[in-house]
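User: I've been trying to design a sequence by hand for this structure and keep getting stuck. Would you show me what you'd pick, starting by listing the structure so we're on the same page?

Assistant: Good idea, let's start from the same input. This is the structure you sent:
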């Protein structure tokens, strides 16, 4: 157990993602976790930025509506290429096909963050650009075999083995991971939640 776990939570994270937990701990915010479990189907014709913002808002609101007294922080990340949303791959074929589409191209990673408290829901959107080098089919298959892509939007993890594919990244590294810390800190401040807490 880290020192964060010994402090009373000041926020409820509406996500079971271990990466989002790590990022919140990185900026010293003790928290508890409650999964949102909402329908994540995109609406027909919905633009990617509208989709991620709606998802983040609904996740935060869903947990808040269950009677959570703490401010509820939620996030949603999607990978976008040519206005197409790439979520978590269903299987190996889809995962490998995603990587091959990103090969030698720049795609966007959109992460929306929402905080729901007594005052309502506040939202922020972070958009980052990621350029992959040219990938071979063999590399895409080998990366799938690492087990890393299965539960990641766009089928890769910036902080993991896929780092070798990334020629450049413009924007927020933490946003590509799933929780942009600049926007998150702004939202927390607006909700009266402090950062950089230390154990008493």
């Amino acid at each position: 157990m880290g020192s964060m776990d010994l402090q009373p939570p000041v926020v409820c994270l509406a996500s079971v993602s271990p990466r989002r937990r790590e990022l919140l701990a990185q900026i010293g915010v003790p928290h508890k976790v409650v999964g949102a479990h909402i329908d994540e189907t995109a609406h027909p014709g919905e633009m990617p930025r509208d989709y991620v913002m709606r998802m983040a808002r609904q996740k935060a609101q869903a947990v808040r509506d269950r009677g959570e007294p703490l401010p509820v922080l939620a996030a949603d990340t999607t990978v976008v290429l040519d206005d197409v949303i790439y979520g978590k791959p269903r299987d190996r074929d889809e995962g490998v096909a995603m990587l091959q589409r990103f090969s030698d191209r720049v795609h966007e990673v959109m992460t929306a963050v929402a905080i729901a408290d007594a005052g309502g829901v506040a939202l922020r959107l972070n958009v980052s650009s990621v350029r992959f080098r040219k990938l071979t089919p063999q590399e895409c298959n080998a990366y799938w075999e690492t087990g890393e892509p299965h539960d990641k939007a766009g089928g890769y993890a910036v902080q993991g083995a896929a780092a070798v594919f990334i020629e450049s990244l413009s924007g927020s590294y933490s946003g590509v991971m799933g929780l942009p810390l600049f926007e998150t800190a702004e939202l927390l401040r607006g909700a009266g939640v402090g950062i950089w807490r230390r154990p008493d």
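That's my pick for every position. To get oriented when you compare it with your attempt: The longest strand covers residues 120-132. The first helix runs from residue 18 to 26.
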